[in-house]
Give the backbone structure.
Amino acid sequence: VIETLTEKEIVNAGFSFVARDPTTHKACEIIPLQPESEAEKKAFNDAQVDNDRKKALRAEAKKAAASNQITESEKAKNAEIDDLLDRSRVAIDMPALVTEDVIFMSQTKLENSFICQPQSRNLNNRIFGGFLMRRAFEIAFSTAYLFAGSRPHFIELDNVLFRRPVDIGDLVRLQAQVTYATMEPTPLIHVEVVALLTQPEKREAHVSNVFNFTYGVNLHLEPAHNQTIKSIVAATREEACKYLDGKEFVSNNRVPQE
């Protein structure tokens, strides 16, 4: 007989959906939400703040694109990228002098591919997003496992982008790589997974989804030779962007470790 029960929150997730008319495929009206309790009001306000922030970023980017100007946030990020590449110059130009505690981002890549089957379809006869998310999680887990040399544990899934629908019979390629890793305050690894819709007959490949995973590793339980993880070196501007994005995900959304 269980005399006492204790509850522990293990997952906290936020989802954003777009309401579209099934006939016109245009935006449709939804019933306004009226929060009542204090907890509901707090959740509503938190979601509103996040939504307003995203709208402001999109408006800023749209305005800058229309005027062909660089936003202040983009200027700051470009400066960070330049500084990051400057610090990576020794590893790029003199690879023979690279120490064992660093690794190029391109060396952490892992890839697989599959044909989408009918059993994974949703009510709209498109491939269910949860199926793609599971496949992305599996390759991200494997990538982190191979990188750390220790079985990782899942920390967080953040910023999933759904850019194109995936249909039955599509050839999907998943490309995963470690974009950021740190030992402070605990060992954490960020893995980005890009899903590509590939059409060999058309010589085309388009990004359908981008997934961002964060994993932790318990290196203190490993043998003495496996007590650290390598730092990531970005060799190109694209990799530097991914590095900074991964660092931001880990820094801003870290789940406290017990």
Q: What stands out?
A: The first helix runs from residue 38 to 67. The longest strand covers residues 204-217.
